[in-house]
Write a structure and sequence with these properties.
The structure is a homodimer.
Chain A (H helix, E strand, L loop, with lengths): L3 H22 L2 H8 L6 H4 L3 H24 L6 H18 L7 H8 L5 H27 L9 H22 L3 H10 L11
Helix pairs in contact in A: 1-2, 1-4, 1-6, 4-5, 4-7, 5-7, 7-8, 8-9
């Protein structure tokens, strides 16, 4: 029975290396070296790099969901403010990394969907799950008259998270908060503009 | 003196392989096999994979600029319609590929910026150049009273192209036009909404 600690060390190192070099660029040797675990033991824990990447992605999404809960579950804020709070929390995390690392879900969306059907399908499931609390929060904001109800909450949630991934993509090139700030500023004065007639 | 045709074959194959497997996943051997050119001749043409990727990226951006010119240079359309026309042209291209391939500029933005400073800097230059005609077209739409002038044309251009990259990212997971259509529909009824008071 392999030690759980080695398994966890592989996964933590996998996240770190895949954040830096992507799915293809993360060799098992690089991950093992980063983990400080013998390279040969990888196959005791994971049946393939693809299976390994699926677990790393799931761990990352579990982390993302905690950030979603922290922001969208904050009952002290109005629904529209909770959406802004999420972007603010993520921006703080990205700033702590010097705007060098982005979002593994976005990274994998561009890099792996053509080469791995299991990863593509898992990403589709992740987006579906990720969007739900946003759609619920947007529906609440619409019901409260805070934002326009021209579009369905599900469409607005998808627009928000997709466009936010686009802002993170630009951030990685610019290495600055400017694309994130620009997105928040424009989106919350247009698509998610606060309605005056409340 | 190496034959130019081999050089071009490497670059065309490089685009194809990098579209599918990304920068890290595109081995020189894979590219040579796709090009039908001896693997050993790569170094006659390119001093490194990074230098090669920079040339592939430049060729891709030249192609993108032609699409920009086609759409934003269409004097038969009003400025706001030209912006929509660009998204429509790109959507047609993405549809022709079965929504499997995205945009190499976006792919490289996520995958290469942490590992190659020359690629990151070139991407920053590309965005700056790519944004200019969009900012000019948006300024024209604002001057004509077609869209709101709350935000600077440069900020709106950046928002448009970044968010569009986010929509393409989602498209690659869903393998459908839905994320692209959703983006166009929402963005052109909100951020780029046609002003009624013209």
């Amino acid at each position: 029975m392999p030690k759980p600690s080695n398994r966890d060390a592989f996964k933590a190192a996998g996240l770190s290396v895949m954040f830096r070099r992507g799915y293809h660029g993360a060799g098992v040797r690089d991950v093992a070296a980063e983990a400080g675990v013998p390279h040969g033991s990888f196959t005791n824990h994971f049946r393939s790099k693809e299976a390994f990447a699926l677990e790393v992605l799931d761990d990352y999404f579990a982390h993302t969901r905690r950030l979603v809960d922290e922001a969208l579950g904050d009952a002290s804020l109005r629904p529209r403010e909770r959406l802004q709070r999420y972007l603010q929390i993520v921006t703080e995390r990205l700033a702590a990394d010097g705007f060098v690392r982005g979002c593994l879900i976005g990274d994998f969306s561009l890099e792996t969907t053509q080469v791995s059907e299991p990863l593509r399908q898992r990403l589709a499931e992740i987006y579906a799950e990720w969007l739900k609390p946003f759609a619920a929060c947007i529906a609440e904001a619409q019901a409260a008259g805070e934002i326009s109800d021209t579009f369905a909450p599900e469409d607005l949630a998808d627009f928000l998270l997709s466009s936010w991934e686009g802002a993170i993509l630009r951030m990685k090139v610019e290495r600055s908060a400017a694309p994130l700030d620009r997105f928040r500023r424009i989106a919350f004065e247009t698509v998610f503009r606060e309605r005056m007639e409340r």
